[in-house]
Amino acid sequence: MTYENGEDDSEAYLIGPGFDLAVPGFNFFTLNFYYRQTEGSRPGDDVWQITPAWSYTLPLGNSNLLIDGYIDWVVDNDQNSHGTYHANLHFNPQIKYDLGKALGWREKQVYVGAEYSYWKDKYGIENNANLDTHESTTSLLVKVHF
Predict the structure, then answer these.
(1) Which residue among 9, 17, 117, 132 has its CA within the 20 to 30 Å range from the CA of 123?
(2) What's the Cα-to-Cα distance from 37 to each of 42, 45, 91, 104, 122, rounded to whole Å?
(3) By C-alpha distance, which of 54, 53, 85, 89 is closest to 73?
């Protein structure tokens, strides 16, 4: 179960089964199927959301490259009769180098890398000529685990 709470009265309840899959080579691979109920000022018909998440480590020199991320796919609900929450897809992978291990510090403590975020119809708002709701952005990142 997941609860999402945004600004003002925007919230969603997600409940459903999740599976930890033993995919060879992966640190983890999960697959969740959520029944999504959107509440607040933008209600929508109840829809399904599919969320895979993964983590994969590749050796690189004297350290590792960590590739991980998730996809949130809110299944098509565009034909609903009264809802305003539009189907959408969010793809968010990260590629990180274990700098801590490379410098002889603790492994999995300091990472540097990049993140890409692609979100079609962000926040469930349909893209149109007056409002571009597609996101495509790349960020550099530094992650420190204490």
Answers:
(1) 17
(2) 11, 7, 21, 47, 17
(3) 89
Number of structural domains the chain divides into: 1
Domain that holds residue 62: 2-144
User: Which candidate, 118, 68, 67, places its Cα nearest to that of 90?
Assistant: 118
| Residue 44 backbone dihedrals phi, psi, to 5 degrees | -135, 170
Q: Report DSSP state, residue 125.
A: P
CA-closest candidate to residue 112, choices 74, 139, 76: 139
pTM, entire model:
0.85
Q: Confidence band (pLDDT; 50, 70, 90) for 38? A: confident
